[in-house]
Amino acid sequence: MPIAKISPSLLSGDFGILAAECKRMVSHGADWLHMDVMDGHFVPNITIGAPVISCLTKHLNAFLDCHMMVSHPEKWVDDFAKAGASLYCFHIEATQDASALIDQIHAAGMKAGVAVKPKTPISTVMELGDKMDMCLVMTVEPGFGGQRFMAECMPKVKELRARYPNLDIEVDGGIAMENIEAAAKAGANVIVAGTSIFKAQDISGTIESFRTFVNTEQALLEAENKK
Ligand code: DX5
Ligand code: ZN
């Protein structure tokens, strides 16, 4: 059964003290750190690139979950691998040959993730389920933090989970206490959250609650599958 991994989005942190923000999230129980890479082309915003990841990995030993909101994702694979990225998650909408790109990412020594925007059907990635290490089902339009969770994306998570009981399925965008249960019930086990974690009164408690919701639902799903 895929266990919960909570991946706070550093986009909600203070980029001026990024390494300290990463360490703070790890100290609160984060399993992964979600790094939002935006190129101002695939999405209307620019954030960070491989040089920043490379500086960060000198200060940290954490799993860096890199969400590549970029055009031509094949261009940055080697730079991110050298910089110390752990998982390279590209958008299916940004590539012509997802299968070859997954091979390229694996050859560079990283885990490969494939992301789908809210309006992209899940059928576009369904056949990659045995090849990719993770599927990211976006629950907001990529580009900015602090948007509203789109519950209408949950049937995509459900469909993917039904076909791939062991795949890491990540949800990203607007996840908070009021919708974590819906995401967990649909079958997501990797939880990205920016605003709801960074603005929480009790960050450790929020991370722990997300983890409990996910692990509880995964145990129920597993029991259901064994029937
Ligand atoms: C949006 C990013 C998200 C975002 C999540 O394009 O991919 O990772 O930072 O932030 P919240 O949780 O605030 O929606
Ligand atoms: Zn993201």
From TrEMBL:
Keywords, sorted A to Z: Carbohydrate metabolism, Cobalt, Isomerase, Manganese, Metal-binding, Zinc
Molecular function via GO: D-ribulose-phosphate 3-epimerase activity; metal ion binding
Reaction equation(s) it catalyzes: D-ribulose 5-phosphate = D-xylulose 5-phosphate
Residues reported to bind substrate: 9, 67, 143-146, 174, 194-195
Pathway: Carbohydrate degradation; pentose phosphate pathway; D-xylulose 5-phosphate from D-ribulose 5-phosphate (non-oxidative stage): step 1/1
Cofactor(s) annotated in UniProt: Fe(2+); Mn(2+); Zn(2+); a divalent metal cation
Cofactor mode of binding and number, as noted: Binds 1 divalent metal cation per subunit.
Enzyme superclass (EC): isomerase
Active site per UniProt: 36 (proton acceptor), 172 (proton donor)
CDD domains: RPE (cd00429)
A Pfam family: Ribul_P_3_epim
Binding-site residues for a divalent metal cation, renumbered to this chain: 34, 36, 67, 172
PROSITE patterns xref list: RIBUL_P_3_EPIMER_1
EC number(s) recorded for this UniProt protein: 5.1.3.1
Xref: InterPro entries: Aldolase_TIM, Ribul_P_3_epim, Ribul_P_3_epim-like, RibuloseP-bd_barrel
GO biological process: carbohydrate metabolic process; pentose-phosphate shunt
Transmembrane segments: none
PANTHER family in UniProt: RIBULOSE-5-PHOSPHATE-3-EPIMERASE
Family statement drawn from the similarity comment of this UniProt entry: Belongs to the ribulose-phosphate 3-epimerase family.
Name of this protein: Ribulose-phosphate 3-epimerase
Organism, scientific name: Entomortierella parvispora
Organism placement in taxonomy: Eukaryota, Fungi, Fungi incertae sedis, Mucoromycota, Mortierellomycotina
